[in-house]
Prior knowledge:
This protein is mainly β. It has strands at 2-6, 9-11, 17-24, 33-38, 44-50, 57-59, 67-72, 77-82, 91-99, 102-105, 109-113. Helix content is 0%, strand content 54%. The strands form 2 sheets. Strands 2, 4, 5, 6, 9, 10 and 11 form a 7-stranded mixed beta sheet that branches. The protein has a 4-stranded antiparallel beta sheet with strand order 1-3-8-7, with no helix packed on it. A hairpin with a 5-residue loop joins strand 4 and strand 5 (44-50). The N and C termini lie far apart (37 Å).
Amino acid sequence: xxxxxxxxxxxxxxxxxxxxxxxxxxxxxxxxxxxxxxxxxxxxxxxxxxxxxxxxxxxxxxxxxxxxxxxxxxxxxxxxxxxxxxxxxxxxxxxxxxxxxxxxxxxxxxxxxxx
Length: 115
């Protein structure tokens, strides 16, 4: 099981980024996937979740209305579209998936929102 995040970078406030979480070694489409983030000096924060067929999505209040999670099971990838970014969104973003009794996570991708 391997999860690889990408798409992070430096963006100005109000800008957008699309993060990707690509899975290998297992069929991601059979599992729910979560995005989390951790800002410098702060604890981890859950951001969003999507169910296996994408019928249900959930968001933290801090990102609701600005972030959109989606998935392409044919590509074994989950996306996080982030719009109207704020400086408070600056963090390391990473995805996790629970397979059996083991939670797997990727190495993360850094998002920095700054002018």
